[in-house]
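Why show two proteins at once? Because comparison is the fastest way to build intuition. When a single record is shown, students tend to memorize it. When two are placed side by side, the eye starts asking what differs. So, the first record is below.
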Amino acid sequence: MQEWSSKRTLTPAQRAVGVLAILALAAGLVRRPVATVTLGVAALTLLFAFTTLVRLVYLYRGYRTVRGRASRPPQLPEDPPRYTVLVPLYHEANVVPALCDALARLDYPPDKLEVLVLVEHDDPETHHACTESVRPGWRIITIPEGQPRTKPRALNVGLASATGELLTIFDAEDRPEPDQLVKAAEAFHRLPAYVAGLQARLDFYNQGQNPLTKWFTCEYLAHFGLYLQGIAAYRDPMPLGGTSTHFRTDVLREVGGWNAWNVTEDCELGMRLAAEAYDCLTLDSVTWEEAAPRLRTWILQRSRWVKGFAQTGLVLLRHPIETARAMGPVRYASSLVVVASMPVTLCAQLVFWITLCAYFLLHSTGGDVHYIKAVFPEPFLTLGLTSLLLGNFAILLAFVSAVYERRRYELIKWALVAPVYWLLMSIAAWKGVLQLFRRPHFWEKTAHGLAVEPATAQATVALPRAVRQPVTRRAQLYAPSANGNSRAESAVADLEDHAKDLTR
């Protein structure tokens, strides 16, 4: 766990490489400024084009997976596992009653359900609200004073007290579907032991509040409804969300719990589980959340996410050979594209859009585009424009497809103008990256209770089915078992049986 800690933003080796890169860049700008800028633009263009292509592959595979999914009602195992629900709260007194009502609707045997409400030691208002609203048998755990003041630290305190075989997290504004725990318990019962995590879909109950919440909803429909589905289909490392993630508790303890110094703790945990030869899949159940309806709140939340992805990307690059060996080369490359490149491409997107607009404006008015062509020589100018226009258009179609697949037809017109939203994402990315080196562990709290619409429940369909054998496994997965088959062979047989059951 220590080598994955984000307590240090950069290791000494990374600092040395960074200093050398800055010196080389400075020298290049002094001696050959145009060539240096051109080289940097070429590298960014290739990275942007490649990551856009990979993202489109995941979205398309996710669309095919969702379209081919069978549906059947979930069935709780005969001997249900004990389930722990962790609920981290901080300055959330105003939403505690609605949260407790939502958790009370979870359809799981009460004697098998453990709810641990985690409240910071200096938050008496939330503690009092919890005391008034928690149900009999639930426990309120006070998080002791200490550093860092982050959600993952609170989750680790809860993990130390958890007694369930399975464990999940719900945030303050969450409204999970009542049968979500049943679906997760059945999935874990059917799936092999190396499937350590399941990510439920997240959606918003205040989607119609304003344009920002509508765009946010379109993004979540594509991200959780298609993108993560595609990642799971290829069995690549999954950047888990911060809520409605379900785990095998013993595996969580085995890998050391959450990284208390990382501000996107479950994204980092998904990468660490992959490095330990575990898989994460998706769960076809919905948790309804509150979309941030104010631009400032949304910027703070999004910049924290980008900062956490950057933290995780730097950790992935600390020991690339060892990490690639642990994950497998293909899965490691996937993790770099999905996680490490995300802050870079989001920041680069703003630069590319400004350059594109300047180019067309100057070209149409007879202005001088010599300088733009000098730093964007062919074929990189064509590649950059193609990636930006066609790539963004393809992702826009994915947004429309996700909205259409979920029959949220009123959002289609907002999906068609999503590029405006992506520019906001780029602005938030710049904020997050700049803050990485000034306040790397500062947790910018998202304000909740701003929605103007009540939470509503909607029905969902079936469990996800595993679609292909994992590419990379540790050596012990191939050790012969009592029946003469390896663990991997037995696991593949289990997955095939599970797929057959779902198609009946």
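Second record. Ask yourself what differs from the first in the token line.
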Amino acid sequence: MRSVRAQSTGTIRTKVLLPGGLLAVAAMASLAMLVPGAAAAGRSDASSVSISPDQVTTKACGTVNVKGVTGSTPNAGNPFISSSKVCLNGSLISYGNHYITYSNPPKAFVDAGRLLFAQACSSCHGAQANGVDPEGNATIGPNLQGVGAATVDFWVSTGRMPAADVKAVEAERRNPPRFNAVQSLELAAWVNSLVPAVPAVPNPNLRGADQSAGQELFSLNCAACHTIEGSGDALAFGTNAPSIVNKNVTPQQIAEAIRTGPANMPRFSGNLTDKQVADITSYVAGRLQHPVNPGGFSLGGVGPVAEGFVALLIGVGGLALICFWIGERS
């Protein structure tokens, strides 16, 4: 009798405790899904505390504007899914992998950058680089807060900024640039200190890069605007895709352009991995900027149109003259 009663009591406890346990597990899982930071709060590493579409906050890296990078492909320019990431005292220092290392300018550059910006940039972008003048009106230049150090460094290091003509439809590359490489990084350091953001300044490692793969990727993603030879071409409304065969265009600037998408250029921030960006950069800085012409005369390197014209004019024309000469002789 006692054995039957014990079995009955155990069965009742099982029927009560099992559903209750399942409900508790379901409730905790729902909480983890609704509050991403709750699952990471108990960890001691630099895991995400809170995530929004525009920024990521971590214990080690502070708040970082990630609007400049998209997608969830590993090693595609996003520091929070890169194979390596270095943060110190609540600041993102560097990230990336073997193919590209992204680094923010040192904090020691911030004060010098503040002075340079006040002298050369604030009249168009506002004293706080937010596109607003002291009266609260919009300035002629856009808001630069949250664009990332790579964006600022690209525009300044290529000489497009400060603009030679602020009313021009498109800022043209100026050679030599007004500021040197260190000053460009100083400006980038100050702007990025206002709203820390990515992408940081890329340093592509071109050793071992696959130029054949880079040529294929360039043909698919870049040649439509820059032409297959990289000589550039006109676009709509007075704008243009600049020539990238200029040897003053550095590998760093090529990678910056791919990751930031200056002017009319698309921003390849999530659909190209760092390896693919390095392959494209190696192809542009190698074969396009230093072409090999086994056939002799390069015809200006402007592509198949010039080659076809010369083939028709000289090749077909020469053959026609030879045919006429043979006909006259006969």
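One difference worth noting in the second protein: Strands lie at 48-51, 55-58, 62-65, 84-88, 91-96, 100-103, 201-204, 233-234, 240-241.
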